[in-house]
Q: What sequence folds into this?
């Protein structure tokens, strides 16, 4: 279901802008949200739904960030990998271009935080981290807004 | 020097915001004195200088011959504009889509330094014959040595002063002073930051960012830089103290090329960075360090509050991720009752927008809200937009729903961000749809 949600989102909304556009993320996320919930609200526990929503959030974020970003690619790969697809890309992605010596604990921690951070050089890592932080912050703001408006609507009724 | 480097990094960050003027055409080689004066007035490295010589050197690396020869040959003629025109298309080509780089050529002084030095060399002061005579001689020497060496702003200045000094049969005192002044200024330019390498590094950085290339390019450019540096230092060593005030310590032990022997007497003394090795390795490292510093600054700018260490950045990222988790849990708890209709509404809405003529339909919130700062009016306009387009049944239903939403408007709060307003508008639509449909369903 989550796969479907993500794929549908991507196909229907077209290719994302290379620039990060907020309305794209918002609509995409809302779409994904609705798809997450359509599995049957009563059938699933809130925690299950929460996980699905989180996954959808990351997927939307990565999808709207564009495939040019290493972290978005890695994030999508991580999200899609869960169903255990048999289909592997014919061209081998060269992972572990430079395995980290792990001298700096800060750097190691950053690599763990940023998706796809294990294979990058340090300055590339910093660049990706900056972009990731930006998108994350936007995603958080988006979700906060949704929650606020949802609670507001709920309080009205 | 560090400050300047950081400034360079900053400027790199903000390169998109630089005002774009016509690159190189008019002010590249100004025959006027104002540019000269501006050079002399500018004793400290400015950001623009670094940026300019960056693209200059970086663009020069791929294309040496046409630029150099054309440059030098044409510079002797009073038609500077032609030179500029030859320069800008030639130079702009190898630079990968860096219009910003070309632009920055114009916007500040370091380019004009080379240009004005050239002019000081020949245009207004010397008879053209001498300039013509002197130039090709120097040119040949330079081409022998290395074309890369020619291309650096160093070598430009050097060659300019070379020509200037060489062709001077009789230097006026004012002329000498002017040259020295330029040299000094250029020295100031060069010295105060790691100029050529940083310029090239910055150019490399810019190119990197645009093309996302491998570090091989860096190494190549670093090696280019190192060659240039070596040659510049060679020049320094060979030079007779022409401007005694500027002589400083130069690293010894560089090999001298024979072609440069004849140029001993007329070199500019350029201060190398004190205690800095000019290996290709260290240069590349310096490039890399600057890159890293620049990225760190980017990161620190993104993180709210003071983030001196990477530690705080990591904490911030972790907190953001935790917030995502928390909000997702909250969303899961708070919205069990949203039905499938949102999906259909949204998808069809979007499909309509994509099929329809006005792309603004897709994001009525985003397109409408910026001029309007109340969610209510935005919704009205969104509704108007919807009604304007040929309505199918869905469209009509959406219009109806929008009208229904209108009733909710008064209760909605004002949000500062326009896009959040838009989001709220969309949310209101969705919720109103849901409410209506639920009401109808029940």
A:
């Amino acid at each position: 279901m989550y796969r479907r949600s993500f794929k549908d989102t991507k196909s229907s909304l077209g290719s994302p802008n290379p620039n990060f556009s907020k309305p794209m993320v918002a609509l995409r996320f809302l779409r994904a949200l609705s798809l997450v919930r359509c599995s049957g609200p009563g059938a699933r526990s809130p925690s299950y739904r929460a996980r699905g929503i989180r996954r959808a959030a990351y997927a939307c974020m990565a999808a709207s960030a564009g495939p040019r970003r290493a972290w978005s690619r890695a994030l999508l790969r991580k999200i899609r990998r869960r169903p255990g697809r048999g289909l592997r890309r014919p061209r081998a992605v060269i992972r572990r271009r430079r395995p980290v010596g792990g001298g700096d604990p800060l750097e190691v921690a950053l690599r763990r935080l940023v998706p796809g951070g294990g294979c990058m050089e340090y300055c590339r890592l910093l660049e990706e981290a900056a972009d990731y932080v930006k998108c994350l912050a936007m995603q958080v703001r988006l979700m906060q807004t949704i929650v606020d408006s949802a609670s507001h609507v709920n309080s009205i009724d | 020097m560090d400050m300047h480097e950081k400034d360079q990094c900053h400027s790199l960050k903000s390169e998109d915001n630089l005002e774009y003027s016509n690159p190189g055409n008019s002010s590249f080689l100004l025959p006027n004195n104002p540019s000269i004066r501006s050079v002399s007035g500018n004793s400290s490295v400015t950001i623009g200088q670094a940026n300019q010589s960056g693209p200059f050197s970086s663009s020069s690396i791929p294309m040496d011959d046409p630029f150099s020869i054309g440059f030098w040959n044409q510079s002797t003629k009073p038609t500077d504009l032609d030179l500029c025109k030859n320069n800008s298309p030639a130079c702009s080509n190898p630079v990968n889509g860096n219009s910003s780089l070309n632009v920055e050529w114009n916007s500040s002084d370091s380019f004009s330094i080379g240009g004005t030095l050239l002019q000081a060399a020949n245009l207004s002061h010397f008879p053209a014959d001498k300039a013509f005579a002197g130039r090709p001689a120097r040119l040949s020497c330079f081409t022998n040595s290395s074309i890369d060496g020619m291309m650096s702003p160093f070598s430009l200045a050097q060659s300019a002063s070379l020509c200037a000094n060489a062709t001077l049969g009789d230097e006026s005192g004012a002329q000498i002073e002017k040259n020295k002044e330029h040299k000094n200024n250029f020295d100031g330019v060069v010295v105060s930051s790691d100029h050529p390498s940083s310029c090239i590094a910055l150019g490399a950085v810019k190119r990197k960012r645009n093309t996302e290339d491998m570090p091989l390019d860096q190494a190549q450019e670093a090696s280019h830089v190192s060659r240039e540096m070596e040659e510049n230092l060679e020049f320094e060593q060979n030079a007779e103290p022409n401007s005694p005030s500027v002589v400083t310590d130069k690293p010894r032990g560089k090999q001298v090329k024979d072609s440069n022997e004849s140029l001993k007497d007329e070199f500019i003394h350029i201060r190398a960075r004190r205690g800095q090795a000019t290996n290709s390795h260290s240069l590349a490292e310096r490039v890399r360090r600057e890159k890293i510093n620049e990225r760190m600054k980017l990161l620190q700018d993104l993180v709210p509050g003071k983030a001196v260490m990477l530690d705080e950045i990591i904490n911030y990222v972790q907190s953001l991720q935790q917030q995502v988790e928390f909000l997702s849990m909250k969303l899961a708890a708070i919205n069990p009752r949203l039905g499938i209709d949102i999906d259909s509404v949204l998808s069809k809405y979007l499909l309509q927008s994509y099929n329809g003529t006005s792309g603004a339909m897709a994001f009525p919130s985003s397109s409408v809200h910026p001029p309007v700062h109340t969610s209510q009016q935005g919704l009205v306009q969104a509704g108007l937009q919807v009604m304007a387009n040929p309505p199918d049944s869905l469209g009509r239903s959406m219009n109806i729903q929008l009208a229904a939403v209108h009733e909710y408007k008064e209760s909605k709060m004002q949000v500062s961000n326009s896009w959040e307003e838009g989001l709220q508008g969309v949310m209101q639509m969705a919720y109103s749809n849901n409410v209506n449909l639920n009401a109808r369903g029940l």
